Amino acid sequence: MFDRYEGGEQAILVNVDFPNESAREDVEELALLVSSAGVEALEVVSTSRRAPDAKLFIGTGKAEEIAALVKAHEADIVIFNHALSPSQERNLEKVFQCRVLDRTGLILDIFAQRARTHEGKLQVELAQLRHISTRLIRGWTHLERQKGGIGLRGPGETQLETDRRLLRARIKAILARLDKVAKQREQGRRARMRAEIPTLALVGYTNAGKSTLFNRITNADVYAEDQLFATLDPTLRKIDLKDVGPAVLADTVGFIRHLPHDLVAAFKATLQETRDADLLLHVMDISDERQADNQRQVDAVLAEIEASETPQLLVCNKIDRLEQQNPRIDYDDAGVPQRVWLSAQTGVGVDLLFQALSERLSKQMMREHLRLPPQEGKLRSQLYALDCVQSEQILDNGDMLVSVNMPAVEWQKLLKVHGNKLASFVVEQE
Prior knowledge:
The chain is of the alpha/beta class. The protein is built from 14 helices and 15 strands. It has helices spanning about 25-35, 60-75, 85-95, 105-115, 120-130, 160-195, 210-220, 260-265, 270-275, 290-305, 350-360, 375-385, 410-420, 420-425, and strands at about 10-15, 40-50, 75-80, 100, 200-205, 235-240, 245-250, 280-285, 310-315, 330, 335-340, 365-370, 390-395, 400-405, 425.
């Protein structure tokens, strides 16, 4: 076996065009991924095939051509814009005499660089361990078989088997830790649900501007850069909306086409914030010519994590990069906001986003004016406990004129408890 490189800083990129649209990958996106990983792309090799080769993924002639380029450029690594099987990676490394990385491995490497919180690091490690568990044999080819005979008997377990056992133990330990974190998150979600605080989640293709918008709305200081997967760790902040009250906004990891399943599984706790949200803010880079395809990819991932039924508000971001594009709100025939056009970078149109959020969420709120007699002090206390009293006025006869604003769900609960009596206290606003 050749000496394997621990890291690659200069790479040859390989992209294969297939007739099947679902198997195609974007060359420009590969370049962005490589740049985000801190790797210098020396040359891009493109080829076409009807189907991947079982042994090398690409043809033998193209493999020899890439091997010559690796030697000429003294490249450290060859990166494929596709998912490779362990045997294909092993065979290609023998031909190229350097390390080979596929698209999944590249994304995992970027995630490993970006993770900042303890939870994020655990999630990335889990995804990496699941990925390399199928590739262990490459590093231990000299220990594939147990040796027998006098003086050559081993402890009954090869190094490969030992590594697999240790991997399983580490994966089990990480899953236990993440399960604990998931329970803590679930407690927080239940508390917000009891308080009827709406939860909003920013979703969208990676590098669409979610974290920049998050910082603009919440005055937070979340890491935001013009690169893929700048955000991995979910961040939650409280915002106040007119006619709605407090709401929780979550910034989540960006999606990408063909997001590795190991990552989807590892980031289940993070993506749970998306699935349980009351409204998804689908942020789109409207200046990207691939925007329509990116939107379809995001919808596909949302379907995969069972969040496709959650209501969406489309946020058309980066209008500052377009000519003659003004901020605005697009409504449907029922007068419900569907799209908001803005620029998170400059702040233009962000006020319209707040307006659209208030209009969308206030549809789920009940505003009522109640005239309560003095003996209804217990009902008055319940209203204050729900934190829904907007104003109160004591009339000359001792009646209490109370203005309330609460979620429709809570109003229905009160009606079930107090029945027609509560309905009789409702008065028209003067």
